[in-house]
Design brief:
The complex is a heterodimer of chains A (442) and B (251).
Chain A lengths: L4 H18 L6 H17 L14 H8 L27 E6 L2 E5 L7 E5 L5 H7 L13 H9 L4 E5 L9 E7 L6 E3 L2 E6 L4 E10 L6 E11 L4 E10 L3 E11 L4 E8 L4 E10 L5 E10 L4 E10 L5 E10 L4 E10 L7 E10 L5 E10 L5 E9 L3 H8 L5 H13 L9 H14 L6
Parallel strand pairs in A: 1-5, 4-7, 5-8, 6-9, 7-9, 8-10, 9-11, 10-12, 11-13, 12-14, 13-15, 14-16, 15-17, 16-18, 17-19, 18-20
Antiparallel strand pairs in A: 1-2, 3-4
Helix pairs in contact in A: 1-2, 2-5, 6-7
Chain B lengths: L1 E10 L2 E11 L4 E5 L6 H9 L5 E8 L2 E2 L5 H7 L1 E4 L6 E5 H15 L7 H14 L4 H5 L1 E2 L5 H15 L3 E5 L7 H14 L5 E6 L3 H5 L4 E6 L2 E6 L1 H10 L2 H10 L1
Parallel strand pairs in B: 3-10, 3-11, 6-9, 9-10
Antiparallel strand pairs in B: 1-2, 1-4, 4-5, 7-8, 11-12
The chains are: A alpha/beta (442), B alpha/beta (251).
C-alpha cells in the first residue's frame, strides 16, 4: 500500500528528535546546528514532486512512496554481518572499506603511508569542529531534499585525507553493500575526501544491492576536495544495483592545476539518480567526466551533472553514453556554467544514446550558460538506433546479425574505458558490458 | 559460379533493375560499366544481400539460391563486396574485426580458428599486397581513413577473406593514379583460376590495370551490350551517348 508524500516527510521529520537524542553529547553545537538547519530545509521542501523541474523525468518520490514502509530511519545497528567476500570484484586489490547497510563492516589493516581514514561517528568534538570546515560546504541541502535528508541524518561514513605530495600506489576501494533481507533499509551515507596538494590517488566506489525482497533506499552525499596539483581518478561503479533505489549526490571541488578523471558506470536499478557536481575553482585544471548507462527491463537511470567553471584557463570534457533496451528509461541533464571570471575556458559536453526497443526512452537536456566572452565551448546530444549501414557492412564480412549488433554496441559502450586507471577494473567492466550486451568477446 | 536470371529490383516504388541476366564462370573477370544512375551499385549491393529492395528473379551462386541467404551466409559461401563507400565504424579495430570475420568464415567451412600468431602472420603477408600500414589496422575500422586508405583496406580485407567471387564496386573512384595501381596489383595477385571477379566501374581506366575477360554495359537497369575489353575502350572513346541512343530507339 502506498503512503503519501506528507506521511513520508513527517515520518522523517518526526524521527529527527529521537535521532538527535541518540547522538546526544557526541556532537558539538556546530554539527547539531547543521543538522537542525538541514531538517528544517527538508521539512520546508518535502520530497520533490513531478512539477519540480530537476525531477521532472525521474519520479523518485512516486517510487519511494510505493516501495518504502515507515520503518527505522537507520538500518539495524546490531545484527550479524554475513560473509560478503563473494560479492566483491575479484582480484581488485587496494585499501578496502566495506559498508554493510550503511555501517562499516570491514577495513583493510595496513593503511598506506600518507593516507588517513577516520569514521565520521568516531570523531571527538574538536575533530568534528575541524571537519565542519569542509562538511556541507559543497552540498546544496538548502535546495535539494535528498541532500538535506542526508545532512540531517548521516551517521556513518569515511573522512579520508590524502596527505600532500603522496602518491597512493594502490587504490582506495569503498564498497556499499545493501541487503533488505530483514526489512527495508534506508541508508544515509556520508563521505568526505580531501586530496592534498600534489597528491595522486585512485578512488573506486562500488554499490552492490544484494538480492532481496525488500526495497533498499541508498541516499548518499560525498564531498571531495582536490587541492592544488592533486590528481584523482574516481570510478563510481553501479554494476550490481538491480532492485535498488539510489540517490547519489557527489560534489567535487578543484583548485589550481588539479586533474580529475571521474567515471560513472551504471547497469541499471529500480531508480538511480546521480547528481555529479564539479566546481572548477582554479586555473589550469582538467576534468575528464565520463559516464555509461546500460538500461534494461523497467529500470530508470538519471545522471544530472554540473560543471561550474569559476576561474580562467581550465578545461573540462564530458561524455555520457547510454544504451537503453526494453522499457528502460534514461535521463541526462548536463549543465555547464562558465562564470564571468572564467575566460579562456575550454568546456565540452556530449551525450550519445542508442535505443534498442520501441518502448525504451531517453530524456536528454544539455545546457550551457556562458558569462565570459573568450571561451571555447560546445555541447550536443544524440539519440538514435544502431546504424543499419554499419550492421550490413559487418554482415557482408561474415558476422551474423546478432554478432554485428553486439560488436557495434560493445564498441559504442567501451569508449570511456581509456579513463579507467586500473587494469583489473577495466577487465571487470569489459566483462560486465559484454554480458549485458550479449557480446561474445572471444 | 554466378548465374543471374531476370533480376528485377525496386525501392520505394522505383524500379532500378529491369531484368538483369549475367553468367560468371570461375577464372573470369567481368566488368560492368554504365552511366551514372544505371543501377550498377544497386546490382552490386543486392548480390551482397542488402535487404532494402523488393526483388524478383533468380540468382544462383555455386549452385545455391543466393537470394535466400542472409548477407553473412553469402560472405561465408565466398562472396565479397568491396564497398564503394566503406562504412566507418568507430571503436572497432580493423584487426579485431577481421579476426572475427575470418574465423566466422573458417568455422562455416569446418576449419579451425586461426590463433593470434597465425592470424598476425597472415595480416603481415597480405598487408604488403596493398601497401597498407600496420598502424592503420590497429585503428578503428575506416574511421578517419583517407579515401584511398579505405579502398586499399577493402582490397586488404578481400585478400584476407579469399572470396570465390569478389565484386568491386567503383573501387577506382577517388583514387589517384598511384593508389589505383596499388589496388589493381592487389586484385591481380588475387586473381586465380578457381575464383572470379566482377569490377563495377564508371571509367575505363581501372580496366587498363585489371584486364577483364568480358565487359557489360548496364543502362536503365538492364545489360544492353556485352563484349570483350575492346568494348571498354570504345566506351572510353565514344562515351555512353551512343548506347543510350541505341537503347532509346529500341525501347
Amino acid at each position: 500500500m502506498s503512503i503519501t508524500e506528507k506521511e513520508l516527510r513527517d515520518h522523517f521529520t518526526n524521527k529527527f528528535g529521537d535521532f538527535s537524542k541518540t547522538l546526544n553529547g557526541s556532537q558539538p553545537a556546530e554539527i547539531s546546528n547543521l543538522r537542525r538547519e538541514a531538517i528544517e530545509a527538508f521539512a520546508a521542501q518535502g520530497f520533490p514532486l513531478a512539477k519540480n523541474e530537476e525531477y521532472k523525468y525521474t519520479p523518485l518520490t512516486k517510487v519511494l512512496l510505493k516501495s518504502l514502509k515507515l520503518d527505522p530511519v537507520q538500518p539495524a545497528e546490531a545484527g550479524v554481518i554475513p560473509p560478503f567476500n563473494e560479492h566483491l570484484i575479484p582480484e581488485l586489490d587496494g585499501h578496502l572499506l566495506v559498508y554493510w547497510n550503511g555501517k562499516l563492516a570491514y577495513r583493510s589493516e595496513d593503511t598506506p603511508k600518507g593516507l588517513v581514514i577516520e569514521q565520521l561517528d568516531s570523531l571527538d568534538h574538536a575533530r568534528q569542529r575541524e571537519v565542519r570546515k569542509y562538511l556541507a560546504t559543497l552540498t546544496n541541502y538548502q535546495s535539494d531534499a535528498f541532500a538535506a535528508l542526508n545532512t540531517a541524518f548521516f551517521k556513518h561514513g569515511s573522512l579520508v585525507k590524502i596527505a600532500k605530495d603522496t602518491t597512493l600506489d594502490e587504490p582506495l576501494i569503498i564498497y556499499h553493500l545493501s541487503d533488505g533481507q530483514s526489512g527495508p533499509t534506508y541508508t544515509q551515507t556520508r563521505h568526505l575526501l580531501v586530496a592534498g596538494e600534489n597528491s595522486r590517488a585512485t578512488l573506486v566506489e562500488i554499490n552492490i544491492n544484494l538480492k532481496s525482497n525488500q526495497s533498499t533506499f541508498y541516499n548518499a552525499v560525498s564531498e571531495v576536495f582536490l587541492e592544488e596539483g592533486a590528481q584523482l581518478y574516481f570510478h563510481k561503479i553501479q554494476s550490481k544495483c538491480s532492485g535498488a533505489i539510489i540517490v547519489d549526490n557527489t560534489h567535487l571541488h578543484q583548485e589550481n592545476n588539479s586533474q580529475l578523471h571521474c567515471t560513472t558506470v551504471t547497469t541499471g536499478g529500480t531508480i538511480i539518480r546521480n547528481n555529479l557536481n564539479i566546481t572548477i575553482n582554479g586555473e589550469h585544471c582538467e576534468s575528464h567526466i565520463n559516464g555509461l548507462y546500460l538500461i534494461k527491463g523497467n529500470d530508470h537511470v538519471d545522471n544530472h551533472t554540473v560543471v561550474d567553471h569559476r576561474i580562467a584557463n581550465s578545461y573540462s570534457n564530458e561524455l555520457y553514453k547510454g544504451i537503453i533496451d526494453d522499457s528502460g528509461t534514461g535521463v541526462f541533464n548536463g549543465k555547464i556554467f562558465v562564470q564571468p571570471d572564467a575566460q579562456k575556458t575550454n568546456a565540452f559536453q556530449s551525450n550519445k544514446n542508442l535505443l534498442l526497443s520501441d518502448k525504451a526512452s531517453m530524456n536528454t537536456k544539455p545546457q550551457l550558460e556562458i558569462w565570459a566572452d573568450d571561451v571555447k565551448c560546445s555541447h550536443g546530444a544524440t539519440t538514435g538506433q544502431i546504424d543499419s549501414d554499419q550492421v550490413f557492412y559487418l554482415r557482408s564480412r561474415g558476422l551474423d546479425k546478432q554478432q554485428a549488433k553486439g560488436l557495434l554496441l560493445y564498441a559504442f559502450a567501451t569508449e570511456f574505458l581509456e579513463h579507467i586507471s586500473l587494469p583489473v577494473l577495466k577487465d571487470y567492466l569489459e566483462k560486465v558490458i559484454a554480458d549485458m550486451l550479449h557480446y561474445d568477446k572471444s | 559460379m554466378l548465374k543471374v536470371d531476370n533480376l528485377i529490383a525496386s525501392i520505394g516504388g522505383n524500379q532500378i533493375l529491369n531484368g538483369v541476366n549475367l553468367q560468371v564462370n570461375a577464372g573470369e573477370v567481368h566488368a560492368i560499366m554504365g552511366p551514372n544512375g544505371s543501377g550498377k551499385s544497386t546490382f552490386a549491393s543486392i548480390l551482397a544481400g542488402r535487404d532494402s529492395y523488393i526483388i524478383s528473379g533468380k540468382v544462383s551462386f555455386l549452385d545455391k539460391n543466393l537470394l535466400e541467404m542472409p548477407p553473412e551466409k553469402r560472405a561465408r559461401e565466398g562472396l565479397f563486396l568491396a564497398f564503394q563507400y566503406p562504412v566507418e565504424i568507430p571503436g572497432v579495430s580493423t584487426t579485431n574485426f577481421l579476426k572475427t570475420a575470418v574465423n566466422k568464415i573458417r568455422e562455416y567451412r569446418g576449419q579451425d580458428s586461426l590463433d593470434a600468431v597465425t592470424f598476425l602472420k597472415l595480416i603481415r603477408e597480405k598487408m604488403k599486397l596493398v601497401e597498407i600500414d600496420e598502424s592503420l589496422l590497429s585503428r578503428s575500422l575506416n574511421d578517419g581513413y583517407s579515401g584511398g586508405e579505405k579502398k586499399r583496406n577493402e582490397i586488404f580485407q578481400m585478400a584476407i577473406l579469399e572470396p570465390r567471387l569478389a565484386i568491386l564496386d567503383e573501387t577506382d573512384s577517388g583514387l589517384d593514379i598511384d593508389a589505383l595501381r596499388i589496388v589493381a596489383n592487389g586484385v591481380n595477385t588475387l586473381r586465380k583460376k578457381d575464383n572470379a571477379i566482377i569490377v563495377v566501374t564508371h571509367y575505363q581506366r581501372l580496366l587498363d590495370y585489371i584486364v577483364p575477360d568480358f565487359v557489360h554495359v548496364l543502362y536503365n537497369g538492364r545489360i544492353v551490350k556485352s563484349g570483350t575489353k575492346e568494348l571498354a575502350l570504345e566506351l572510353e572513346e565514344r562515351g555512353y551517348d551512343w548506347i543510350k541512343e541505341n537503347e532509346n530507339v529500341i525501347t
